[in-house]
Amino acid sequence: MDKIRLNGCRFYGYHGALAEEQVLGQIFVIDLELAVDLSAASLTDNLEETVHYGHVFDRVKDLVENQRFALIERLAGAICQDLFKAFEPIQAITISIKKANPPIAGHYDSVGIVLERSR
């Protein structure tokens, strides 16, 4: 299956199990891989034959910045549900959500999750 990728999308949101995360917020870094049959688009050069990644970005941005979840697992699930509903050609989604600065004492690059979902 062909893939559309959106890498390193950065949004500011208020997701987290700890009260500080719900009040202060933080940056979330999201990577998406969408399984889509791109054979028609690769032959026709027609935007209607693919999934417009700008529209995908806008939907993800809206969810991250305007909804609140205690768990990033739930945020990722909500994003997958929304994208499947909005874009019929998407057959599978791999989503990674990272928090660069969660309220955890220690030294690390980030913490996060990866979900894989399919129709």
Automatic annotation (TrEMBL):
UniProt domain Dihydroneopterin aldolase/epimerase: residue ranges: 4-117
GO process terms (BP): folic acid biosynthetic process; tetrahydrofolate biosynthetic process
Keyword Lyase belongs to the record: yes
Superkingdom to which the source organism belongs: Bacteria
Protein name: 7,8-dihydroneopterin aldolase
GO molecular function, a single term: dihydroneopterin aldolase activity
Similarity remark: Belongs to the DHNA family.
Ranges that cross the membrane: none
Keywords from the named record: Folate biosynthesis, Lyase
Reaction catalyzed: 7,8-dihydroneopterin = 6-hydroxymethyl-7,8-dihydropterin + glycolaldehyde
Function: Catalyzes the conversion of 7,8-dihydroneopterin to 6-hydroxymethyl-7,8-dihydropterin.
Pathway: Cofactor biosynthesis; tetrahydrofolate biosynthesis; 2-amino-4-hydroxy-6-hydroxymethyl-7,8-dihydropteridine diphosphate from 7,8-dihydroneopterin triphosphate: step 3/4
UniProt EC number: 4.1.2.25
Keyword Lyase among UniProt keywords: yes
InterPro entries listed in its UniProt record: Dihydroneopterin_aldolase (IPR006156), FolB_dom (IPR006157), GTP-CH-I_C/QueF (IPR043133)
Cellular component GO terms, alphabetical: cytoplasm
Protein's organism: Streptococcus bovimastitidis
